[in-house]
UniProtKB/TrEMBL annotation, chain A:
GO MF terms held by the record: ABC-type transporter activity
Protein name: Transport permease protein
Subcellular location: Cell membrane; Membrane
Gene Ontology annotations of biological process type: response to antibiotic
Domain of life: Bacteria
Major localisation: membrane
Transmembrane residue ranges: 21-42, 57-82, 102-127, 139-161, 173-195, 221-240
Annotated signal sequence range: none
Keywords: Antibiotic resistance, Cell membrane, Membrane, Transmembrane, Transmembrane helix, Transport
Keyword Transmembrane appears in the UniProt entry: yes
Residues of the ABC transmembrane type-2 domain: 20-246
UniProtKB/TrEMBL annotation, chain B:
Keywords: Antibiotic resistance, ATP-binding, Cell membrane, Membrane, Nucleotide-binding, Translocase, Transport
Signal peptide region: none
GO cellular component, one term: plasma membrane
Matches recorded under SUPFAM superfamilies: P-loop containing nucleoside triphosphate hydrolases
Biological source species: Actinocatenispora comari
GO BP, sorted A to Z: response to antibiotic
The protein, known as: Multidrug ABC transporter ATP-binding protein
Length: 247, 303
């Protein structure tokens, strides 16, 4: 097995050994979808939601939930800890570049995100008749851009936070507004017009809108895709410029 | 050709000069100690040698390669055990070994390594559950897993109990017996005296001395102090006439005799001839501790 494969497998095992990460990132989104789906009112088509049902809107929101949880919380927390503990420095003394460890972390987090996306889409379809994405290619493009934007945000947190405590705090502080604009508490479609416009220019708001559009069958709005790509570039640049390998 | 060659090494962090004009060579198969107070620049020096830090001036060659410009070459021949714990809490011993083995093209057999280091019954144990001594042994195993020709061991025995420390020392001697050159950073005199062939004393970023442990000891004065309780009253003039004795002092019921050379044999012999026993006999002579303190005392404790 190649050294990178060993590294990814080790990082995956370590991820699964964190009960809180497993609970919030893997178990919680499908569970919340099931709970919401059991509320009869959420399975009723609503005129003010453009003929959709609340449960339809919550599939992309749950996807944003796992992406924000892993990319902006678990990932920077783990990387900060690796820096603080000297894991990155130790690896830098071997022939394997320490950057591989960051890449392995990204691979593991993306794997978790894809797994939960499949779970959530499958539960929505089988349990509550949520249609599968009608524009699969657009959905895929939107999802990839969402991943890029959120991973870049997480890497930026890992880069600028001086230690693990600050990194974890920043992750949590970012998580709530991200989920608010994703529509966790109030779906974007049900927000007042001004708030809705603001949401569309946030990473998570643009993300749920792009995923929602593609699920409904149209190509995701260019504005949303450009917003996501823009965040990916800006956050990514800051992350690369300010990343430190030791504390 | 020396295995490690350091010439005029200088490293600054902003205004602070961490290492200034440090030079030394390490020969093949040597255990070379770097000794000094906290913050003296020991770790910075070995980090520059390991290629973890850039230097501001000077040259470093590790088996002929520059640790920064030819980093890959140096990483293949140099194994490092770093000061801080450098593994995730929940990684198991066997996972860490396999992971680090995978970093090298021709790794050592990790099974043989754990057996030798006495970690065989800890393979499935998570890093956080290991004792201090076991963590250090794992760190050594990981430093050796790439079959390095040079092992850098930084503050290896700090925080270990005396037994674990002694076990670790035996281990280092075994590693050297295999032909691995060892660069050992320490602030324990006993460790340096026991293990090192040669020692570089670094103080406030500068090389204060470079010698064998015995050579360092001989640089401080070689006087010895003998303290004993005579079984009968002693005529001190008798002792003062001995060639090795320089001074005699009474301390309650005890006599304190200072001297050089064979002073102990002379004093005991003279007493015996007079039918006097030297009870509670104790002797202090200059040690590496004294040499170290003499070399570093001017700035000791300064940070």
């Amino acid at each position: 097995m190649s050294s990178f494969a060993v590294l990814v497998r080790t990082e995956a095992k370590l991820f699964l050994r964190e009960p809180m990460a497993v609970l919030w990132a893997i178990a919680f989104p499908p569970l919340l979808l099931v709970i919401l789906g059991c509320v009869p009112a959420f399975r009723v088509h609503q005129h003010e939601l453009g003929g959709l049902r609340v449960i339809d809107l919550y599939v992309p929101i749950m996807i944003l939930f796992v992406v924000a949880m892993t990319a902006v919380n678990t990932l920077p927390g783990a990387i900060s800890l690796y820096r603080e503990r000297g894991v990155l420095r130790r690896l830098a003394t071997t022939p394997m570049p320490a950057s591989r460890l960051l890449l392995a972390q990204v691979v593991v987090n993306v794997a978790v995100e894809v797994l939960v996306l499949l779970l959530v889409v499958a539960i929505g379809r089988i349990g509550f008749g949520v249609a599968l994405p009608r524009a699969p290619l657009g959905y895929l493009v939107a999802f990839l851009l969402v991943l890029c934007a959120m991973l870049a945000l997480g890497m930026m947190v890992a880069a600028v936070a001086p230690n693990t405590k600050v990194s974890n705090a920043l992750g949590m502080i970012l998580f709530f507004p991200l989920m608010f604009f994703a529509g966790l508490w109030l779906p974007v479609a049900a927000m007042p017009a001004t708030l809705r416009h603001i949401a569309e220019f946030t990473p998570s708001g643009a993300a749920t809108q792009a995923l929602g559009d593609a699920a409904a069958g149209s190509w995701p709005g260019w504005v949303h895709l450009v917003v996501l790509a823009g965040y990916a570039v800006v956050f990514g640049t800051v992350a690369v410029r300010s990343f430190r390998w030791d504390s | 050709m020396p295995v490690i060659e350091v010439r005029g090494l200088r490293k600054t962090y902003g205004e602070k000069v961490a290492v200034d004009d440090v030079s030394f060579d390490v020969a093949q198969g040597e255990i070379f100690g770097i000794l000094g107070p906290n913050g003296a620049g020991k770790t910075t020096t070995v980090e520059c040698v390991s290629g973890l830090r850039s230097r501001d001036a000077g040259t470093i060659r590790v088996l002929g390669a520059d640790p920064r410009a030819e980093r890959d070459q140096v990483r293949r021949v140099l194994g490092a055990q770093l000061q801080e714990s450098a593994l995730p809490d929940k990684i198991t011993v066997v996972e860490a070994l396999k992971l680090y083995a995978s970093c090298y093209r021709e790794p050592a057999d990790w099974r043989a390594l754990v057996e030798r280091l006495g970690l065989t019954d800890r393979l499935r144990t998570r890093y956080q559950k290991l004792s201090g001594g076991q963590k250090q042994r794992l760190a050594i195993a990981l430093a050796l897993i790439g079959r390095p020709r040079i092992a850098v061991l930084d503050e290896l025995t700090t925080g270990l109990d005396p037994q674990a420390r002694r076990d670790t020392w035996n281990l280092i001697e075994e590693i050297r017996a295999d032909g691995v050159t060892i660069l050992l950073v320490t602030h324990f005199m006993e460790e340096a005296a026991r293990l090192c062939d040669r020692v570089a004393v670094i103080n406030a970023g500068r090389l204060a001395a470079l010698d064998t442990p015995d050579g360092l000891v001989s640089t401080v004065d070689d006087s010895q102090q003998i303290r004993f309780r005579p079984s009968k009253p002693v005529d001190t003039a008798l002792l003062a006439a001995l060639p090795g004795v320089t001074s005699i002092r009474r301390d309650g019921a005890e006599l304190l005799v200072s001297g050089t050379g064979n002073v102990l044999a002379e004093v005991v012999g003279t007493l015996a001839a007079a039918g006097i026993l030297a009870e509670h006999l104790r002797m202090d002579s200059a040690s590496l501790d004294d040499a170290y303190l003499a070399l570093t005392s001017n700035t000791e404790g300064e940070q």
